[in-house]
Amino acid sequence: MAKYFGIDFGTTNSAVVQYDTQAALTPFRHIGDGDEPIPIPSVVAVDNLTQEVKVGRGVKNRLIQLRAGGRHLVVESVKSLLDADETWPTPAHVWRPEDIAAELFTALSEKAHADTGEHIRQAVVAIPVGMSPAKRATLRRAAGTAGVEILSFISEPTAAFIAHAAALRHCRYAVVFDWGGGTLDISVLESRDGCVIELHTEGSPKAGDHIDMVAARWLHTQIAERHGLRLPFESVAPDEKHILLTEAERVKRHLQREAANAGSVKLGRYAGLSLVEQELTAETFDSLVAGIVSEALDLLMRSVEQSRVSQKEIGKLIVVGGTSNLSLLRRELRRRWPQPNIIFPGGAEWDIARGAAWLAAHPGRHRTAEGVGLVLADDEYHDIFRPGTGSDEARAKLHFGLVEDVTTATFSFATRDGDAAAQTHLGELHVESFGFRDETIELECRITPDLVFEAEASSEAKRRRSPVFSYDRLRWMYETPNEA
Asked: What pTM was computed for the model?
C-alpha cells in the first residue's frame, strides 16, 4: 500500500492527512472542508425525520438554524463525551456518543474519498495525552463502525514530534506547544535510545474557541455603542449570536493568514438592526488577546520549569495547532523565548495529523517507561514487565506456590522506575484457593492494545478465575522508526 492516513481527532476540529510514499515532492495531502484548506469542524447534525447526517463546516455555519424547531439533533465536541453515559433519542434511533463519533469518522472518510479518490480504511489516530482507555476503546469501536481500522493511537505531542523528526535528530529535549480550538496542551519531551518520552504535560481550556468569544463580545459592544443598543450580549437571539461568533472566527483567520491590518464583520441583521458592519483592526485584536497569550506563555515557562529541564537544554520548541497562527503569540514567543530554536510550521493545524500519517506508513511502538511487577511476601519486588517492554510483546504467565494455609491468595502490584528502589503501589488482586501448602496459583498478565495493564489468576486446584485487575495509568514512551 502506497497511501496512508493520519487523523487528528479533535474536540473542535478534526484534521485528516494522506501520506503518499510514491509522491516524492509533495507526499502529504491535507483533507480540508470547503474552499479553504482548513480542518473539518467536529460537529454532527442528524435530521430527526429522515435520519440524514451532515458533518462539518456547513453544519457549524448553520448551527442555530439546525437546532431551531427541534428538527435536528446537533452534537458538538463529541470527543469530550466518549465516556459519558448520555443518549439523544430521535423518533427512529437512540444515539450514543459512540454513534456520533462513528458518523464523524464516516464523514472524514467520505471527504478523503472526494479529495483523493480513496476512503480511509486504516489510520493512525492522534489523541490527547492521558485519554482514558474507555474513551480509546469507544473511539476504536466508532471507527470500526465507519469501516476504519485504527492501526494505533499516538499521543498528540509525539505525533507533532514525528512530524518534525528531521529537525529534531540532534535534540535530547523538545517542547510541543499545541494550541488548538478547544485546549492548549504543552508537553516536554525527551528523546532517549530511539524513544520519545513525555516528561511533563500541562493544559488550559483557553484556546481558539475562547478567543472567538472574546472577539465577539468586543464586536457586540462596538455595535451597541454605535447604534445605541442597550441589549447585553447574553440577551442576543441565539442564532444571531452564533452568526457573530462565526464572523469573529472568520475575521481572526483573515487577520492571521493574510497579515492584514484590519478585517470587517458584515451582518444582514443583528439585535433588531439591519445591514450592520463593524471593523476589527489587527492592533485592537492583539489588545483583546494579549492577556490570553500572556497566560499561555506563562504556562509554557512553568511547564519547562516543572519538568526539571532548563530552557537552555530544550533543543526545539514546536508550535502547532490552529491558534498558534496568532501573530501576537509569535512575536511574544520570540521575545520571551530568546533562543533561535522555535519551529513555526506553515500549516500548524495539520502537523499532528501529518505525524500520524507518517507513522501509518512507518509504524513505531509503545514501550513501558517504568517497570510493573509484584511485591512478594518477603517485600521483594519481582518484575513482570521491565521498563522498555514493548506493548506488543507484553504477555506473561507466572506460577506461584502458597506459602501458608489461606483460602485467598493475594497479588500486590507495583511500578518501579528502572533500578530505583522506590515503588508505587497499584493495587491488589485476590483469587480463591483451597489453602493447600505449595498449591500452585497461575497468574496471567498482559497489556492491551489500548495500553491497559491487566492481570487475572486462578488456583490450578480450584480452577476458579479471579476478577480481572486493570491499571490504566502506566507511563509510556514511543519507539520511533529508524526512518524518523
From this structure: 0.85
